[in-house]
Amino acid sequence: MLENQWLLNEARKMAGLDDYGDMRFAEGMGVLVKSINDEADLTPAYEEALKEELLRVLVNRLRMNQDLHAHPEILDEEVLPPVYITSMPRTGSTKLHRMLAATGDFNALKYWQSLNFAPFPDAAPDCPDPRIEAGYRHLAHVSAQAPGFQRAHPMYAEEAEEELSLLDAGFNSLYTWAALLDVPTYIEYVLQSSPLAAFEDMRRTIQYIQWQHYRGLGRRWVFKTPSMFGFEGAYSAVFAGTDFVVTHRHPLKTVASMCNLMCGSRSKYSDADFTAVAGQTMIHNFAEAQKGHLAWRAAYPELKSFDLRFSDIVDDEIGVTKMVYNFLGMELTDRAITKIEDWLAMDAGRNHQPCRDTLADYNVEASFVKTSFTPYIDRYGEYL
Fold this sequence. Notes:
- The longest helix is centred in the first third of the chain and has 27 residues, at 44-70.
- The protein has one domain (4-120, 127-383): P-loop containing nucleotide triphosphate hydrolases (Rossmann fold).
- It has helices spanning 4-15, 25-40, 44-70, 93-102, 111-115, 130-145, 147-152, 164-168, 177-180, 184-192, 196-213, 232-238, 251-266, 275-299, 310-315, 317-328, 334-348, 366-372, 374-380, and strands spanning 83-86, 222-224, 243-248, 305-309.
- It contains 19 helices and four strands.
């Protein structure tokens, strides 16, 4: 059984540091730990692996807070209004994110930077950052423990990735903890609570990462994660001036793939078969999230947002990138196009395996999907 205070204290011992700074994350962490103990049904081996992940996050928080005290100028880092790709899962957002990151026109969070956002204290300044190798090792572990997840959402240590590890540290996100674990109480907590503290925490972490890797470049960040879908209002309150790109695909074409992703991710910490509950879980989570998303679009029509079809992203990569650049008021240069084409050629050589699952595989009726997402379908029908 996990124990909240033990985790906090053990991370202090590991880091040799005491001060977490802003402790607002502790409420969500407490809900998560209790939900894990009450609901997740972990074997001792899986519990030990999860404990290591929680300690990694906490140690990074401690190290970052020490650096914030030692270098107060970190909080003077100007985070320009980001570009945020928001959507439900399986809508082409990952491909779009990585294409934009490949241009070199944006700051983009690499997997290894997100996994360990604080430098290792014993890192030699003139050597390759050891966090890069740690990222490769972590992904090898993910591939071994949850090959289905890595097939559904391939990750690469030195490429752009979702800011999930930063959100993990705030303990108020539908991803990663809620995706990896059977924790319905924690999921409801996330859906019903304000994420403002977690977003403010993430903004500090982005300043910290920018200070380390992108200081003085004057570039906007490009971010992406489906866990932001439904929480855009709170996000834009913290990251003022954000331009949102919203990717769309009909839920009838995404729900089975969403279920496949959930089952693959949960295999990292469980031997249980989640096939029977995946449909209900994913539909519930994102049917709830759609309410927040649609309310945000209705309440703030003046916010800059741009809608894209999944088919445009997969069928006309350069054309869709030009559309995004036009929306952002940026010029897509020949150099940037070449970099996108280079990334596309590299990615085409990877052994991507499309999901062949169907709604029937998860005992989900098409009528239930359409009913659950009627508001979204009605609002965005032309993009589906």
